[in-house]
């Protein structure tokens, strides 16, 4: 059947492993992860609850549909995916990107409904951020008190190996969905490996780096985010001063 799948008169197989299907005679392979018969569809050898095999089809790498449902599915590990039904209106459903979608009433992130989001003004930004006329979101989380009209994402996020990202509005700087306290917005800059600084202080993620000098602070280049840095007087690892040996 292709992609490691096979069948005989009684059984379905994947790379020598038998798995149960409703109607082996009509079983066909869709891709490496999906197969279907005339009764239901299957993801990684497991039946997709409530699916209709006759009409099931893949939309793209993260969305699928059948006669009754729209599905979101995502990779969670080696040969592991989650799949869920989106509680959406099929007629007005639209895919925004690989994580966001919408219908006439709701915005969805992965399989979650963004409560209160305004579909008419919703816009996906860079680095996991989005906004509408009323609020700003980081992935599925609403950022408390963020101002949509002045909100912008730091372009430097694209240049460094962060496992966090930074943005700002007229009143604050944010790391992911968290506000950095006591930051001078006008002089704040994004550094490498989860560091940032303004004219008076240095931050590791949201934490103030004690005894750090912004004027001489430098982050070592890394391939894997070890978060080592130094200034004129001290060395730091993940925002903590390294003791002299």
Structure description:
Among the domains are: 1-86, no CATH class; 187-245, no CATH class. 0% of the residues lie in helices and 37% in strands. With 245 residues, the protein is an all-beta fold. The chain has strands at residues 5-7, 12-14, 17-19, 28-29, 34-36, 41-43, 46-47, 57-58, 63-65, 70-77, 80-86, 94-95, 100-102, 107-109, 112-113, 123-124, 129-131, 136-138, 141-142, 152-153, 166-168, 173-175, 178-180, 189-190, 195-197, 202-204, 207-208, 218-219, 228-230, 235-237, 240-241. A hairpin with a 4-residue loop joins strand 25 (195-197) and strand 26 (202-204). The chain is built from no helices and 31 strands.
Short description:
By secondary structure, this protein is mainly beta.
What is this structure's SSE topology?
Elements: E1 5-7, E2 12-14, E3 17-19, E4 28-29, E5 34-36, E6 41-43, E7 46-47, E8 57-58, E9 63-65, E10 70-77, E11 80-86, E12 94-95, E13 100-102, E14 107-109, E15 112-113, E16 123-124, E17 129-131, E18 136-138, E19 141-142, E20 152-153, E21 166-168, E22 173-175, E23 178-180, E24 189-190, E25 195-197, E26 202-204, E27 207-208, E28 218-219, E29 228-230, E30 235-237, E31 240-241
Antiparallel strand pairs: 1-2, 2-3, 4-5, 5-6, 6-7, 8-9, 9-10, 10-11, 12-13, 13-14, 14-15, 16-17, 17-18, 18-19, 20-21, 21-22, 22-23, 24-25, 25-26, 26-27, 28-29, 29-30, 30-31
